[in-house]
Design goal:
alpha+beta; Alpha-Beta Plaits; two-stranded antiparallel ribbon; 4 strands
Length: 68
């Protein structure tokens, strides 16, 4: 039996400055994030995440962590 691991995307909203810079939303190649009502990203398509790490690597305040 094959096991498929889904990525877990954790956003630290205390650190997040997405009201100013929406880098994660803009750079994600598979549109995992959408802008929430607070102006901060929310994960809407976690199942599409290919774990490329673009969001995590480019977050200026290290507010995103991807794990399995």
């Amino acid at each position: 039996m094959d096991v498929i691991k889904m990525p877990r995307i954790i956003i630290d909203y205390v650190k997040c400055i997405a009201e100013e810079e929406k880098i994660c939303i803009e750079l994600c190649p598979v549109a995992v994030f959408q802008c929430g009502e607070s102006g901060k990203p929310r994960v809407v398509n976690a199942d599409k995440c290919n774990m490329c790490g673009v969001c995590q690597a480019n977050c200026p305040v290290q507010a995103i962590m991807i794990s399995t």
